[in-house]
Design a protein that fits this description.
The complex is a heterodimer. Chain A is of the alpha+beta class. Chain A has 12 helices and 24 strands. Chain B has a domain at 167-319. Chain B contains 9 helices and no strands. Chain B has helices spanning 5-54, 66-104, 112-133, 141-157, 174-204, 217-249, 258-277, 280-285, 287-310. The chains are: A alpha+beta, B mainly alpha. The structure holds protoporphyrin IX containing FE. Protoporphyrin IX containing FE binds next to helix 3, helix 5, helix 6, helix 7 and helix 9 of chain B. Chain B: The chain crosses the membrane at residues 14-35, 81-105, 111-130, 142-161, 173-202, 223-246, 261-278, 290-313.
């Protein structure tokens, strides 16, 4: 709790089962006592504090060690650099801190502690809202804020004035034995309200997060920006897919996206300026209804496509060079597949492998050994470095150039083993089943002739985009809870819980009365002094004020 | 044109001017602080003399004696000059930041240079407001100025970047909301960090002579609490807006990116501070002050170490 308990100190709780100290407690009550003590220990402020620290401490390795969920390559680097240490870190869950059991244990304990702390307080709060403000203390002069004075007006008038002034405060009026009349007033309940809202919202955030972990998913897919389509119908459509614990992929929202164009603009130095993809999409309903039209939209950084409760992001782009292979018999095939950017500095220098099978070959053995792969490096704006190597000097398609190496032989695609779309099987090259037959530097329209007369032509380039689809049914709840949380926090830290007492004693003789005032702020925010002084000034005639 | 070089140059000049004026302010604040100590020592000697002579109640330090009064007024003058210089620095600083925005034609909080610079301005601003409200705090100004001047120096040298447009991820109105609140909160939190550190010196350190003139431990503690109570909800809001932005920019609202993780750690520490301060034993023993100091240390760590060494999605910070 972020403020001192506002309830008056409670007398020590008498245990319902506690007999006289001489009677020995039975095993049941001992277990109960243990449970109760554990519960009390767990829900004490001290425990909450220790758990908060543990949580902060436990999160730190998540920032300092490479995390598999963020960047698996960095984890591999760590293995390479610290071969002895890495397995230990792995065993302790150091590469997946936020999925580790000990991290979960800490925050679950903290949540239990929080619930145990908040629920009794909520009850206490509800009770005190219904109770009238506490009695006026006997001796108001002992309070941190106090003042008194005499008035010529009768007690009734003074009380009416006080009542008027304290409008908006919770008040209770009492008459004391000696005829003095008092008003107890209280303000600032919102502090406690805010505090409870804050803590309950934290639990809300956690529940929302849990819902996301259970029912959310995230997938990546590369789509060529030439009118190619992607439908969110099954996990198989994705290049990679991360499913929530309760997601088996049979129940995806079946919307479709068609990528018409990729637009990028860059500063002269190659720094990206804007990215966007013109798309059309069909909602799940459109797909089910067989609507033939596509709704136009633009996906950009900071502007995902939102449909069916899912979000589609543009998280990357690259190029797919197109090659046409023409065999000596005149048959030809055109291949276009994405190559992947390999340069960290964002020039979009790419590598890949575009694979072909010779058409019209019936003999399986001949077909297997006459496969062709066009591999190599692609630069959207090609230039040659002093060593003669192709580099890219700009990510835009200003002068597309490919340094290709054409491989002929068995690509291994019939082996039944999956292989990367970005490369050929190195084993086949090492085994001599796949041989390099030509290398060339090609601009668009250039060709290279293989020894057997086959011609490979570099036709052109199409950009592709990486789309990331996200589904998280919990996120709206998390946001709502988070907003409530700040609201509660701001309330509980800005409102002062304060009390004000007025005692008016009718003068023994005549009409006049004696007024005593007292004030107490329950929290150490500054400012109550001023408010008290203002109230005092209003209630007491300045000439006869005896300030304390 | 993408960047106006003339305006950018004036922004840089104002930044340099700010640093110089802050240095001067630091000199005067130090003079004030040192003179205060002299005055106090002188007053103490007079006190002893007075007690020895007549057994009268000792004078309040610095209230009496010509030597004491002379140094005190001089200290006061130095203090006033220091504050005036801080006001001047705040104005040139603001000018520098605003001109950055015009030069690059965008919200001027797009990289670590701009961010840290603004953070320093917020800290100075917070201190000026505090001193206006509680003039008794003024002599402690030197302790706020020292870290600010250091940070400004690092900002102007190590972190400096030419004005330039930002990457697509930062082209969003969320930069105004997220980064501005985080800057404001971080700048404000510098003050409680310093106050808590001084509290610890006062409480636990040997009563070193330089610490004698500090405000009382109680007022340092109260200062730390009041500013934290203001800054913590802001920081929370800043983190939440970061999450909202991340949902649009990075595809998820929370992904334990290093910057997010350390922001979380700092948040937890400040939450712990508020709890600790509400627990009597922790408040008086100084545990709460330790936590507050650790909280600010974490913010600084997040700013420098995470940006420059670890690097994650926030790494457009540009160093
Ligand atoms: C949950 C998500 C986020 C959290 C918790 C978060 C947290 C923070 C924190 C603590 C800072 C303080 C300065 C520092 O230590 O460097 C900061 C600064 C900043 N944040 Fe975020 N942030 C989030 C998301 C984002 C997003 C999505 C963007 C933009 C794409 C962004 C852009 C910035 C910028 C430009 C700064 C200025 C300082 C710098 O360049 O380092 N933040 N953020």
């Amino acid at each position: 709790m972020s403020s001192p308990p506002t309830a008056p100190p409670q007398p020590p709780v008498t245990t319902p089962d506690g007999g006289s100290p001489s009677s020995r407690p039975g095993p049941v009550s001992r277990v109960l006592a243990l449970l109760r003590n554990t519960w009390r220990g767990l829900t004490s402020m001290r425990t909450a504090l220790v758990l908060l620290f543990l949580l902060a401490l436990a999160a730190l390795p998540g920032a300092l060690l490479p995390q598999r969920s963020l960047n698996a390559f960095l984890v591999e680097d760590f293995y390479r650099d610290n071969p002895a240490l890495a397995p230990v870190v792995e065993a302790l869950g150091g590469f997946e801190v936020f999925a580790s059991p000990w991290f979960a244990a800490i925050y679950l304990l903290l949540m239990i502690s929080l619930v145990g702390c908040v629920l009794p307080r909520t009850a206490e709060y509800l009770r005190s809202v219904r109770q009238p403000p506490v009695m006026t203390p006997r001796n108001l002069a002992r309070l941190p804020h106090h003042a008194e004075g005499v008035s010529a007006a009768p007690a009734d008038d003074e009380l009416a004035r006080a009542r008027d002034l304290l409008r908006g405060w919770r008040r209770a009026e009492r008459t004391e034995d000696d005829g003095a009349r008092t008003i107890s007033a209280e303000k600032g309940f919102l502090r406690e309200t805010g505090n409870l809202v804050f803590h309950l919202s934290l639990i809300g955030i956690l529940l929302g997060l849990a819902a996301g972990k259970m029912y959310g998913y995230e997938g990546d897919v590369i789509v060529r920006a030439d009118g190619s389509e992607f439908c969110n119908s099954s996990i198989l459509g994705y290049d990679s897919f991360r499913a929530g614990l309760r997601v088996d992929g049979t129940d995806l929202n079946e919307f479709c996206v068609r990528v018409d164009r990729f637009d990028g603009t860059w500063l002269p130095n190659g720094q990206p300026s804007t990215f966007g993809a013109s798309v059309g999409y069909q909602t799940g309903q459109d797909v089910r209804d067989g609507v033939p039209t596509w709704r136009p939209d633009e996906i950009a950084v900071n502007h995902p496509l939102r449909t069916d409760g899912d979000r589609v992001y543009l998280t990357g782009y690259g190029y797919a060079p197109e090659f046409t292979v023409t065999w000596p018999d005149g048959q030809s095939r055109t291949g276009e597949i994405q190559w992947r950017p390999v340069d960290q500095s964002g020039t979009q220098l790419s590598e890949g492998a575009t694979k072909f099978e010779r058409p019209g070959v019936t003999d399986p053995e001949r077909r297997r050994t006459s496969q062709i792969a066009v591999t190599g490096t692609f630069a959207p704006t090609g230039a040659v470095d002093p060593q003669g190597k192709l580099v890219s000097v700009h990510p835009d398609l200003r002068s597309p150039t490919a340094d290709v190496e054409v491989l002929l032989g068995d690509l291994g695609i019939d082996d039944g083993r999956g292989q990367s779309i970005f490369s050929v099987d190195q084993q086949k090259i090492d085994d001599g089943e796949l041989r390099s037959v030509a290398t060339a530097r090609l601009g668009i329209g250039d060709t290279v002739r293989l020894p057997d007369g086959t011609v490979v032509r570099f036709d052109g380039v199409t950009p592709w985009v990486n789309l990331q689809v996200g589904h998280d049914p919990g996120q709206t709840w998390v946001l709502a809870a988070a907003v409530l949380m700040v609201g509660g926090l701001a309330l509980s830290l800005s409102v002062t819980r304060r009390r004000f007492w007025v005692r008016v004693t009718p003068a023994a003789t005549g009409d006049g009365s004696r007024i005593q005032l007292g004030g107490l702020a329950r929290t150490d925010r500054a400012g109550y002094g001023e408010e008290f002084d203002r109230l005092t000034a209003e209630l007491l005639d300045p000439t006869d004020t005896k300030d304390g | 044109m993408l960047v106006d070089p003339t305006i950018a140059m004036w922004s840089d000049r104002l930044f340099q001017a700010t640093l110089v004026v802050l240095l001067l302010a630091l000199v005067f604040a130090s003079l004030e602080y040192a003179a205060g100590r002299v005055a106090r020592a002188a007053a103490r000697q007079e006190e002893l003399a007075a007690v020895g002579a007549s057994g009268a109640t000792p004078a309040r330090p610095g209230d009496d004696g010509t030597a004491g009064r002379a140094t005190r007024t001089r200290a006061d003058r130095h203090g006033r000059i220091g504050v005036s210089l801080m006001i001047l620095a705040a104005l040139t600083h603001l000018g520098s930041i605003v001109l950055r925005g015009f030069a690059a034609y965008r919200w001027p909080l797009g990289n670590m240079y701009e961010f840290t610079s603004a953070l320093c301005l917020m800290a100075v601003g917070a201190w000026l407001v505090l001193v206006r409200r509680h003039p008794g705090l003024r002599p402690a100004g030197v302790f706020v100025l020292t870290p600010v001047v250091l940070l400004m120096f690092v900002t102007g040298t190590v972190l400096y970047l030419d004005a330039a447009p930002v990457v697509p991820a930062l082209q969003s109105y969320w930069i105004i909301i997220h980064v501005t609140t985080i800057t404001l909160a971080s700048g404000l939190l510098l003050v409680p960090g310093v106050a808590s550190l001084l509290f610890l010196v006062k409480r636990h350190g040997k009563p070193a002579s330089w610490a004698a003139k500090l405000p009382s431990a109680e007022s340092l503690d109260r200062l730390a609490y009041r500013v934290t109570v203001l800054a913590f909800p802001l920081y929370t809001f800043g983190i939440i807006t970061g999450a909202v932005w991340a949902e649009a920019a990075w595809g998820r609202f929370w992904g334990w990116d290093p910057k997010e993780t350390v922001a979380f750690v700092a948040w937890i520490l400040y939450a712990a501070y508020l709890h600790a301060r509400a627990t009597a034993g922790w408040k008086n023993s100084g545990a709460a002050a330790w936590i507050n100091t650790a909280g600010f240390a974490t913010i600084v760590f997040n700013l420098f170490f995470i940006n420059m060494v670890v690097a994650g999605l926030h790494s457009y910070a540009g160093v």
